[in-house]
TrEMBL record:
Residues 67-121 form the Translation elongation factor P/YeiP central domain. This is Elongation factor P. One of its GO terms (biological process) is peptide biosynthetic process. It comes from Paenibacillus polymyxa (strain SC2). Gene3D superfamilies: 2.30.30.30, Nucleic acid-binding proteins. Pfam families: EFP, EFP_N, Elong-fact-P_C. Keywords: Cytoplasm, Elongation factor, Protein biosynthesis. Pathway: Protein biosynthesis; polypeptide chain elongation. It is found in: Cytoplasm. GO terms for molecular function: translation elongation factor activity. The gene is efp.
Amino acid sequence: MINVNDFKTGLTVEVDGDIFTVLDFQHVKPGKGAAFVRSKLKNLRNGNTVERTFRAGETIGRAQIENRGVSYLYASADDHTFMDNETYDQFTLSSDQLKWELNFLKENMNVNIISYNGEILGINLPTSVELKVIETEPGIKGNTATGATKNAKLETGLNVQVPLFINQDDVLLIDTRDGKYMSRA
């Protein structure tokens, strides 16, 4: 059990039978009435984000999440196959479980699998990944007033806004948290 006053970003908790990770929290002490904790939680089973308010001092269950290294092998239809790096066991996840992550996954990529009591909840991507530009318009000279950008399609199908000097076949560093261009690789 954990006290809601001890919330930290990234903490995993069990509330009403579901597993959540704490995205944001705020301790509120109104002038009149009891203190409370306002929090933003992400459901690890379905990916939904909810806002929840707890009374100060309330205790909830802490969820022990296990992270293991796995390799992404291949995709077939709506299933994506991974292999445990230690035991070489293979398992599949559906496209519904990997909506956001599919924008960054490439074959033979190493990621971490998140599981709770043997139930696979999803994957943790590295903070940034290298992806190749497969399609972009050429930059127009003289079109660089301030921070001009253009659209680029990457090898995974993700569309990203990039500076004008980026060309086709360039390899870019992309932030997996927000899907934005960071730099050339």
